[in-house]
What does this fold into?
Amino acid sequence: MRVAIADDGALFREGLVMLLRAAGHEVVGSVPDGDKLVALVATDPVDVAILDIRMPPEPDGGLATAERVRALRPETGLLLLSHYAETHYLMRVLEIGTEGVGYRLKEKVAGVQVLDDTLTRLADGEIVIEPSLAKRLVERPAGGAGPVGALSEREHDVLRLMAEGRTNNAIAGELFISAKAVEKHIAAIFTKLDLPGDPSVHHRRVLAVLAYLRARRIDG
Amino acid sequence: MNPITRWWRRVRTVRLRPVDPTTCALRRGLERDLNDGPAQRVAALSVELGLLSVDLPDNPTLNGRIDELQGSLAAVLAELREIGGALYPPVLSSDGFEPALHAVAERQGVALAVHSDPVDRATAAAACLAVADHLRSVPRDTHVDVRVRRGLGSVWVDVTEERVCG
It folds into this structure.
């Protein structure tokens, strides 16, 4: 895959370049800020652009740059990296686009396998969400009250993986159950949480799940 | 027979002082140093370990230990993140007062409503830090109402907390 990286932290950026090359990807460019990345992808299209959220132009260069890249090259996958897993940033990432966008913690993409998996999912148009953030969002309230508390253990696992942006097949693989069983669990979750939309359309499903979980966290 | 359920609402209001400008600047600088220095270095170390793993194919024992080390580094970063977020919420730097307070409340599991008179950026940051510090001591599932009011030459930050106890 053809990849470009923008991050003002040279140490991390150069390490990631080597890791990407070791994984067999072609690193088209490695630059320290958003403006240089936009110039780069304008002349030399890439499959996925990797951007640090906190880089020049300040204060949130990664997000602003990702928007520009999406406008310029809508088919380019966007992976936003940060030191912080914040719901607020996740929502801003999803405002940029709902296909082929990802938000992950920097240290969590430090392996060839996870990096490969993340890039493949982005190139396939999936939404990729930091698992620790998804986990925090689906946490059951104290005392197990409310609709999320009413989900079975298995349904709760499926909800968490949906919030990571995982597809049915990936969820089935992760939980060692059949794709049919996953579909059944998802239908049950959508009924119990009274979620709108068609659970078979990937990005709509992720958005419905996230909107629900976020409202639950904020409104109590 | 129905069990008798007892519940009561506990409401209290506290008035907070906005954090003084020197402390605001200091805290913002420290968070930035933490993010650009140690956090960046530790994340880069984790990438180094990932590379080491590539150079050691077919060695499950060493690869397992590398995985463990990466897990330990992730734990260090989680701790740095806690400290950084407490010093200066990252969303405050990028998106300002209200989104930052909602981000802090979300982490604490607190429901939050914010009403604010228009105030300048520095004042908003000072009020935000005071409320963020306070939210860290508020129990989960509390409803918190924040009011920022501009008086004559000063700014008041009133925080009303409501808990349903039962």
About this structure: Chain B touches chain A at residues 35-36, 39-44, 46-51, 53-54, 70, 73-74, 77, 80-81, 84-85, 90-91, 93-95, 99, 102-103, 105-107, 109-112, 140-141, 143 (CB under 8 Å). Helices of chain B lie at 21-55, 60-87, 90-95, 97-108, 121-135. Chain B has one domain: 8-165.
